[in-house]
Amino acid sequence: MTRETAGPRVVVAVATYRRPDLLAGLLASLEGRDASVEFRVVVVDNDAQATGRAAVEACGLPLTYVVEPAAGIAQARNRALDELTEQDDAVVFVDDDERVRAGWLDSLVEGWRREGTEVVTGPVISVFAADCPRWIVEGGFIQRARHASGTRMPVAATNNTLLALDAWRRVGSPRFDEAFSETGGSDAEFFGRLHDAGFEIAWIDDAVVEEDVPSSRANLRWIWRRAVRGGNVQARLRLRRKPSWRLLARVAVVLPYRAARLVVGLVHHRRLLERHLVPFAWQVGLLGGVAGRSVREYRR
Q1: Distance between CA 254 and CA 178 in Å, rounded?
Q2: Contact 228, 145 (CB under 8 A)
Q3: Structure confidence at residue 290 (pLDDT)
Q4: How far apart are CA 293 and CA 300, in angstroms?
Q5: What is the dihedral of CA 299, 14, 148, 7, to 10 degrees?
Q6: 183-216 b/e with 16+ CB inside 10 Å = b?
Q7: 17/250: higher pLDDT
Q8: Which of 17, 18, 77, 227 could form a disulfide with 278 if both were Cys (CB 3.0 to 4.6 A apart)?
Q9: Please, what are the domains in the chain?
């Protein structure tokens, strides 16, 4: 790694839980990519048994490893914030099951400088196994959307996002909401809150990370559950801004429409079924959220 070039001091923050092999892959990709940006890595292991330690000890990067025994992804992300110092200029969040491409960090930092925003975020490319069903690859159920560089976004996730720390400190160093630890969505809530506080979020399309899609996700059951959970989390976020009756009224209109389109798909063609399954599941999740039910996918 080249560290002589003057520039911002960046922390790459990784939360991990019992995925040591995937964590090792991420760290190897970070270690094997030259970067002109000075950075260090903070790994927060959310397993009290410290199952990620061996992967960390095999890594040659400047690295801080801490164990956060309090269960929950928001707790782990907040522990990463605790490890930041006044000398750090930016924190970049990535997931433990990703790999970074060549030039990733430079692209992210250059995009931050160019756009002048408080947050920049980039694409996560889904990498499918050779035996993944073709309809999943072609249907776009798992792949995340991409945008032109510079596009302003209303929210970001912690899978490939840089946060400027001066701006974060100016608004009181906010934390991730631990009420979302078991359901997911603490990153959407966090960056949505920053956006509401005036932070701009810009898309940087050439700052790419990759994520393998395991066979356990390449099926309708996982796609359904993911969409229901997404709608459920979205309902909780929307209910913080508007009364429940307004959201319920909208669901009451949209859900029957989505159900009808799904029935058409069942009768006529599997491709139509697949196309309408996710929007229907999303509305089911919204309805559950309005009713006060939370999908706690990450409960331990």
Answers
A1: 31
A2: no
A3: 83
A4: 18
A5: 160
A6: bbbbbbbbbbbbbeeebebbbbeebbbbbebeee
A7: 17
A8: 227
A9: 9-217 (3.90.550.10), 220-290 (no CATH)
